[in-house]
Amino acid sequence: MASTELRNGSRHGLTGKASILDGNSFRAENAPALTARTDSLVQRRRRVLGPAYRLFYRNPVEVVRGRGSRVWDADGVEYLDLYNNVPSVGHAHPAVVAAVQRQMSLLNTHTRYLHEAILRYADDLLTTFAGPIDQVMFVCTGSEANDLALRVGRAYTGGQAYIATSEAYHGNTALVSAHSPALSDCEPMDPALRVVDPPDTYRYGSSDAAGAAFLASVRAAIDDIESSGDRLAGLILDTSFSSDGIYPGRPGMIRAAVELVRGRGGVVIADEVQPGFARTGESFWGYQRHGLDPDIVTTGKPMGNGFPIAAVAARSEVLAPFAGTRPYFNTFGGNPVAIAAAQAVLDVIRDDELQSHALATGESLRAGLRELAGTHPAIGDVRGVGLYTGVELVPDGTSREPATGLALDVIEELRARRVLTSVCGPANNVLKLRPPLPFAAADIPQLIEALDGALTASGA
Amino acid sequence: MASTELRNGSRHGLTGKASILDGNSFRAENAPALTARTDSLVQRRRRVLGPAYRLFYRNPVEVVRGRGSRVWDADGVEYLDLYNNVPSVGHAHPAVVAAVQRQMSLLNTHTRYLHEAILRYADDLLTTFAGPIDQVMFVCTGSEANDLALRVGRAYTGGQAYIATSEAYHGNTALVSAHSPALSDCEPMDPALRVVDPPDTYRYGSSDAAGAAFLASVRAAIDDIESSGDRLAGLILDTSFSSDGIYPGRPGMIRAAVELVRGRGGVVIADEVQPGFARTGESFWGYQRHGLDPDIVTTGKPMGNGFPIAAVAARSEVLAPFAGTRPYFNTFGGNPVAIAAAQAVLDVIRDDELQSHALATGESLRAGLRELAGTHPAIGDVRGVGLYTGVELVPDGTSREPATGLALDVIEELRARRVLTSVCGPANNVLKLRPPLPFAAADIPQLIEALDGALTASGA
Fold first, then answer.
1. Which chain A residues contact residue B135 at CB under 8 A?
2. Residue B433 and residue B94 in contact, taking contact as beta carbons nearer than 8 Å
3. Chain B residues in contact with A151 (beta carbon < 8 A)
4. Using the beta-carbon criterion (under 8 Å), do B135 and A48 form an inter-chain contact?
5. Quick check: A42 and A56 in contact, CB under 8 A?
6. Distance in angstroms (rounded) separating the CA atoms of residues B46 and B31
7. Where are the domains of chain A?
8. Do B136 and A186 touch (CB under 8 A)?
């Protein structure tokens, strides 16, 4: 059982914490301001889909069409999409549509028959790791991938206790929810789970200080595991710390902590559902920019551009104790159509050079945001790598307290200015700018102008 | 903790039990008989996908194309598909392909934006339950559906202890694996799980006797739960008892047991991944032919004809304690493309009247099989409903011991005769005939002739 300090998730220099149930969500009190059509759709959802379903925005958007980094609502209004990483190579990318249509017309079975495409794709995917990871298992969602990965790590180490960061969200199955501290307000956490603070480069002031604090936290967690009689299974982490507030940090920032976990006998699971597939620009996988050597890599969202496919890749030695003793089978996982979608995505990333595009465009985007910060002291920090950027809003330039209300107002004002995005971090005060990868340098002025207006309209 | 008798799964009149790791699987010892191409694909799989991946048949099939109830291998050889329920409305059904292509070309986002199609489909799906089930949550796989359903049932009842049948397989997540006694050789079962025998109509001799025994087993399990200080969560069951050996029984056979569970405060989860979507012919959902009133219905495989979509449908009252307190979100679940696939499947089932087709064709199929049993005493039982049929093989007409080796030989001989199927049941001696629903009366003679030849060639 974890000690109290390793469970309550209090963070260095940060007192405000919002619940995952708050944030960018429509609430019943917003209903009077809706159009008749929106209100009708909202009511129908509530009636047939039930209370777990949440909508973005006080005035939810009915999106009906998309292309590249743009979407259109039912009234034909065009929006710049700064949020969606699932249509990673662009909304409705014709190459992915064509690949799926072609394979669906031919065959869609499962992996208990031979099919060459899954092997070609597996070979192709494995080359992206450029390391000792040599096997891959296909599933349908990032949640299924992390559910499997956590069990693979436990079987390999014989340990039960994982370490995760304090706002991490790794997915929705029972096991993965119990390893997602972001849900700790409403879900029981795994009794063996230890929670560590993310390397908050903003509040620690530098990547070096944040990395050192992260190392100390991970060491304390391992010590706690061992002294309590539990046994270390490993560390599961998103190397961009997405739900924690986006802290890519300097390359290598978290390397010492990760190496400590391996040195103490745990596995390292890199959850690449968010940073993977070229988004960070500096490398194909987020962990690579930190020079890490994970035992297991999981992926999901961007892998099929919206077609449900995900994967667990691992060193064969790590996979063997689980995979060699279980007839794990995933009916849809790696079926020929899913593989066709994934192969098309990988081909587009390379053919359109989206990794270098993400690197360059992300730098330009953050340069523009930093310039904007000069006239808006509420922008406390602009951080990111590639096309993954966090803009942290604070009351003014002197305090690093989270400006949650402001951030929630700003995303509504951005929506009114035809720019879609959302918030992240424990206090929901970090704007999460994570557009489809075709987001272009030409799109930047629209965002900057909209954000300028949104901040001003929100009183910042 | 469950008593020993409720864990070891010994079954009335049945001594042989095979591991889930045996059965219809390629093994390394079969490699010398393979063609160079098949051997190469098998080796590549082993290298990049690892040891969990299993192949059907001593001589695996490389399927490259499908249409209706037919598939073709890489050499152009045509097979009659008696096994696959995922391409439920037929391999590569053009209406499903067109619906997916159309929606993928437009938009593929997620349920935090409004989209009308999910509401239309939800309304449409909810009418099929024709009962108090009034809400539905969309996920990607049957495993995700059952993982969510088990938690919904626990939140509603406050209990932990579920009852499942002795060879049930409900999916692959950590929680669902722990509630899948078919995996008990290789996975730890949930400490609170109680296992009951399925209503084996063959060995009990009648549906009445099998139903009475099932009722007694369920009562004993509930008594055991209560006397041990655990609390009943509910019963999860596939009303066709697919993995247990296929025991549809007479309509109503299991109704008393199910009503007992509800009377004692548990929820009933009907896992419709196998019998649902018109397969049984007598009703749209398998549970309906038994006159049941489940609290939760889960589905998966046939829902999108191979597109990964699944669902948990429930009474809103049952869903509320879980769904009202958790921000459960499934990124791909219910996305516009998944919904388009599912809507097309539902439309095809109705437009092509596949439910009545399944009923009539299944009856004709079993009539042909029963006639064949007259000349092959190894066919101990032919049972089923709609297009879901079990053919149980035994040594001869006098013993009901399972003829496992014979069944495994027969499916290989069927494969050689261009008919694909597999086995189920605790001893892997029940031929599982579960074709795509367009399987036609005209296909029956080919199957009967192939099975006649396969039995003879296998010495039966």
1. 47-50
2. no
3. 174
4. yes
5. no
6. 12
7. 4-92+353-457, 94-351
8. no
- Are both B4-92+353-457 and B94-351 of the same fold? no
pLDDT tens series, chain B, 460 aa:
444 444 444 577 776 667 666 788 999 999 999 999 999 999 999 999 999 999 999 999 999 999 999 999 999 999 999 999 999 999 999 999 999 999 999 999 999 999 999 999 999 999 999 989 999 999 999 999 999 999 999 999 999 999 999 999 999 999 999 999 999 999 999 999 999 999 999 999 999 999 999 999 999 999 999 999 999 999 999 999 999 999 999 999 999 999 999 999 999 999 999 999 999 999 999 999 999 999 999 999 999 999 999 999 999 999 999 999 999 999 999 999 999 999 999 999 999 999 999 999 999 999 999 999 999 999 999 999 999 999 999 998 789 999 999 999 999 999 999 999 999 999 999 999 999 999 999 999 999 999 999 999 999 9
Q: At residue B338, what are phi and psi to the nearest 5 degrees?
A: -60, -40
**Cα atoms in the Cβ-side hemisphere of radius 13 Å centred on A221:** 33
Residue B320 identity: A
In CATH terms, B4-92+353-457 corresponds, of 3.40.190.10, 3.40.50.300, 3.90.1150.10, 3.30.70.3190, to 3.90.1150.10
Amino acid in the structure at residue B299: T
**Contact, B384 vs B286, CB < 8 A?**
no
Chain A residues near residue B108 by CB distance under 8 angstroms: 66, 86-87, 91-92, 305-307
The identity of residue B19, as a single letter, is: S
Question: Alpha-carbon distance B445 to B365, whole Å?
Answer: 9
CA distance A378 to A388: 20
The CATH fold assigned to B94-351 is Aspartate Aminotransferase; domain 2 (3.40.640)
Closest C-alpha to A312, from A339, A346, A273 = A273
